[in-house]
Design brief:
Helix content: 25-40%
Largest sheet: 3 strands, antiparallel
Mean pLDDT: 86
Shape: elongated
Radius of gyration: 21 Å
Distance between the termini: 68 Å
Number of helices: 2
Length: about 110
C-alpha cells in the first residue's frame, strides 16, 4: 500500500480536491483495482487541510516505489494546477504591506 498526502488551502473545495486525488490514484498505471484507491481528509491543520490518498500496487519488491511516489506527486500537482486547486502555501503565514521604523523621541540613548 502506498499512502500520499497533499495539503490543500482552506479556501478550496475539499470535496473536489478529494475527487481529483482519488481520480489520479485510480487512473495511475500499476495501481490495483482491488482494493480500490481511496482519498480522505485526515487533518484540519492550522494552515491547511491535509488530504490523503491510499492505493495498492503489485509486488512492491519488484516495483520502484520511490519512482511511483514521485510520479504520483507530480501528477497530482499537475492535475491540481489544471483544476485550479491551490495547494497550501509552504509557510505558515503570508504577509504583505509595509513596515515603518521611527525613532522614539522619548528614548534616552546616550
Amino acid at each position: 500500500r502506498i499512502t500520499e498526502q497533499a495539503f490543500v488551502a482552506y479556501g478550496e473545495d475539499t470535496e473536489r480536491a478529494l475527487m481529483e486525488l482519488q481520480a489520479v490514484a485510480t487512473s495511475y498505471e500499476g495501481v490495483l483495482d482491488d482494493p480500490a484507491p481511496d482519498a480522505r481528509v485526515i487533518d484540519l491543520g492550522e494552515n491547511a487541510i491535509t488530504i490523503q490518498a491510499e492505493f495498492w500496487i503489485g509486488d512492491p519488491m519488484n516495483s520502484d516505489v520511490r519512482r511511483i511516489r514521485s510520479d504520483f506527486r507530480r501528477t497530482v500537482k499537475r492535475q491540481f494546477d489544471e483544476e485550479n486547486i491551490t495547494l497550501a502555501p509552504p509557510s505558515a503565514q503570508s504577509l504583505s504591506g509595509e513596515i515603518a521604523v521611527t525613532e522614539d523621541p522619548t528614548s534616552n540613548q546616550g
